[in-house]
Amino acid sequence: MERVVILKVGGSVITEKDKPFTVRTEGIQVVAEAIAEYSKPLFVVHGAGSFGHFLAKKYGLSRKPSNVKPEAVSEIRASVLKLNSIVVDAIQSKGVNLYWLQPYAFYRDERSREKLASLLMKLIEKGVSPLSFGDVIPTEDGFRIISGDEIVRDLASLLKPSRVVFATNVDGIYRNFRTDKKPIQEILVEDIKALVFRPVRDDVTGGMKGKLVETIRIAEIGVNVLFTNGLKKERLIKALKGKDPDGTLVKGRVVA
């Protein structure tokens, strides 16, 4: 069996991030069609976009554990589950068989995580694509946001995929978003820290900068990471297949 590919679909692809609780229908359809056309072992993770980030900011919830009101947790979870249902329905309508997983399944304890890795590989071997999403999870100190990017990093460590693909609403990674018109074609891990990022307003998980923090960790375990425009189907399919991307390749370090 081919090694699995992990696809992270950014919230900017499937929602209008400046409009609370608004789906980006054309983006969802592009992603669904690309996944169906790829038709090889795949694990899909999607972000919460405007269904999660506005509420998380409203209630002061971030990636750090905090004691928030029960109604805040309930409202945020209901919102991200609504988006997840829309995304799952769109992908399955294209004939893709999905197995929906709550993020908390990855973070109960180390033993459950090891068992989960075995379960996930069995699902993939049987032709079922696991899918998860950014969410709110309980901790010993309250609740916190678990970002889709963080889930992807932990999955990469568990599953050792052939590559990770980040689908965003831009063409790749830019050395300086203020001046550059074209993305970087290829970049090494050690060069990422010199990049200049666009400020984020309502993204409680750090926007592109947050993605690249996790990208460094993924690349350091020897996995290549591709950034591409998830609103352009042919580019997304190309990235999933591991061909020279119309985007940015972050080369994984050679692990001895």
Verbal overview:
By secondary structure, the chain is of the alpha/beta class. The protein has a single domain (5-250), classed as Acetylglutamate kinase-like (Carbamate kinase, 3-Layer(aba) Sandwich). It contains eight helices and ten strands. The chain has an eight-stranded mixed beta sheet with strand order 3-4-2-1-7-9-10-8, sandwiched between helices. It has a two-stranded antiparallel sheet with strand order 5-6. A hairpin with a 2-residue loop joins strand 5 and strand 6. Helix 2 (25-38) packs across helix 4 (70-92) and helix 2 packs parallel to helix 8. The longest helix is centred in the N-terminal third of the chain and has 23 residues, at 70-92.
